[in-house]
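ok trying this again, last paste got cut off
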Amino acid sequence: MRAMRTLKTLAKLLETLAESEWSFLMTHDEGISKLLEHVLEELERMDIAWDSLSTEQKAAAEAEAVEWKESKRGEGEYAHASVLPNLVKYLKQRGGKARLGSFAYYLSRNERWVVRYPRGES
């Protein structure tokens, strides 16, 4: 899952700082602080931009970002609903099915899975 890559990178950053010599951290404190502040500012900017999106836009972004698994029974793909909260919300608003981009999306009856199928242009 892609979000795990973010957490792994953050863990590596914290590990690197924790393992650094105290004198290195003291010497480079200002530069390290500026880098981290820049990252924080960018994250805040990205979060504000995300909050300004509609549920449909968030759902489409989630659908692009998640890793879909190929269905063994056909041409469709599926993903666990827990990694697609905005897509699930959007599907519920639309009776459990919707078209986004080049796919038709369906929420399973138990609401644990989202299934998608390629659709033709209409």
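PB: full thing came through this time. The first strand starts at residue 69 and ends at 70.
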